[in-house]
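Dock zinc ion; give full complex structure.
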Amino acid sequence: MCFFVTESPVPATRRSALRAAAGTERPVRCGGCGRAYELPGWLALTLVGTLTGDAIAAHVVKWPHGVRIEVRRCARCAGSIARTVES
Ligand SMILES: [Zn+2]
């Protein structure tokens, strides 16, 4: 009897980070409740924190210069939503 071991696909973490950076003009969707925020609604949310430069570089291999991550609190479920912002 033969068994074949297939390797699981490479995690798409890095790719999704780059895609998120490219899609800064699209609405942000809360991962908790699914509510979508256009830019004005997003800016009205409570800012929980901002990740910049070195903090991001510690987690990703390549990161576009001048791009930071804002984390805001969802108005519906109070979950944290991260969005890339170009400065
Ligand atoms: Zn939510």
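Observed: The pocket of zinc ion is lined by residues 30, 32-33, 35, 74, 76-77, 79 (CB under 6 Å).
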